[in-house]
Amino acid sequence: MEQYPQHVPNFLDKAEFDKDYLGREQVEQRLQIMGSLTEQLSDTKVLLDHDNYHNALTFYRNMKFLSGENVPGTNVIYEDMKQFFVTTGSSTPPATPSNDVKN
Description:
Strand content: under 5%
Number of helices: 2
Oligomer: single chain
Order of helices and strands: HH
Helix content: 55-70%
Number of strands: 0
Radius of gyration: 32 Å
Shape: rod-shaped
């Protein structure tokens, strides 16, 4: 509008437009900062989740070992925890049948 002020309609409040545009730019800047902070916090949470899981897994494996060694009180802890550390078996995909046609 600054380049062509002669074409701005009289009913358009240019000062209000400029305030709205400035406000929009400020909101956009804040949204970009918040987006960056959100991503950083999310990345940090992923790292903390990873650390927590591996520490819990280490504790579980220790309880499993101690339970197997019949250390008093460890069997109850192991039995409570094993529901959270269920293994599903092999992760290798099943073999697919061959489509070779023999004549």
